[in-house]
Spermidine/putrescine import ATP-binding protein PotA (Streptomyces kronopolitis), 374 residues
Amino acid sequence: TKTETPQSSGGDVRLHGISKTYGSFTAVQPLDLTVPAGSFFALLGASGCGKTTTLRMIAGLEEPTTGTVELSGRDVTALPPYKRQVNTVFQNYALFPHLDIYENVAFGLRRRGIKSVKKQVEEMLDLVQLGPMARRKPQQLSGGQQQRVAVARALINHPQVLLLDEPLGALDLKLRRQMQLELKRIQTEVGITFVHVTHDQEEAMTMADTVAVMNGGRVEQLGAPADLYENPGTTFVANFLGTSNLIEAEVVEAGGEELLLRAADTTLHLPAARCSASARKGEKVLAGVRPEKVALTHADDADGIAAEHNRLPGRIKDASFIGVSTQYVVEVPGLGELAVYEQNIERDGRLVPGAGIVLHWSRAHTFGLDATQD
Ligand code: ATP
């Protein structure tokens, strides 16, 4: 007997010039941000970048210094948390230890004076797949199960927006990965807008439709996970989302669809559309490429490398076999060390430390960044 999933409609969130200062310290710089209705949105950044403060301003737990918060077209800046159609799930679950799971989930309904809660509570317990545990106390559940109760409890009043503040932070890595998929499934099923705060780039990329990368109280870049990864606009984003090779280069030819760069003694090609720097002739840029986009060919076989590939000569410094791939550190004269991740398909036995090799990758996988930013 499968009950129907409780459907709610998600609301959109619009932040207009919202900021927060504590004394002379600016935690969040004036920020404009739109979270589309029904989306899974992640605020991603290192500790102290202002993501929790931003979330708390949406919740109404923190009063903005400037700016307004709009929920589904309504200015809620002056409303207390309980008058906003939002609910928050915190890292520490905050379940009532003396109530069983059923009553924890029913709490929001009972507080509103609703008597017949059975159907809704059962639907919610089904949604988070905890029906059989309804009569247990929170301390009889695992961390992941407790977090699912916290989600069910937060969803029972059908908020338009669910805010999640590092909800998986207390879980070990394996459970964390499971819960990421679980939360994603729940969000897709209920259709409520989720705004999720995390410092874990893999978590944000796995779960969210849109990720806002925050740094120093500002949104540094916003986009779909794959887009941010493939087209980072700043060195901060390039380095925060995975490993990147950033090669110092000078623009020797500009104006066409492709920029020509000089890096040490080598010419590199960069699609102009993938360069976020101004990149006039004579200017410095950083040419970036992700380690898994780069291939290694033994120097003796360099003639076979595709003509449209960027290439750099180097020497293998280190090779670590990690199962799915081998991770190489390659020393490139004049440019330092670059990382290469190669899948272990037909490994070339000559690719060992000390070997002379050529690194190469499709020009299309090259991105260009401003070399003057910090
Ligand atoms: P974390 O992941 O560590 O929680 P965060 O990105 O969520 O980091 P915030 O909690 O938003 O960061 O804090 C942003 C900055 O504002 C931090 O430097 C923090 O010390 C500061 N801050 C937060 N709350 C206050 C407060 N009540 N008074 C003074 N400074 C504060």
User: Anything to note?
Assistant: The longest strand covers residues 309-321. The pocket of adenosine-5'-triphosphate is lined by residues 22, 25, 27, 45, 47-53, 199 (CB under 6 Å).
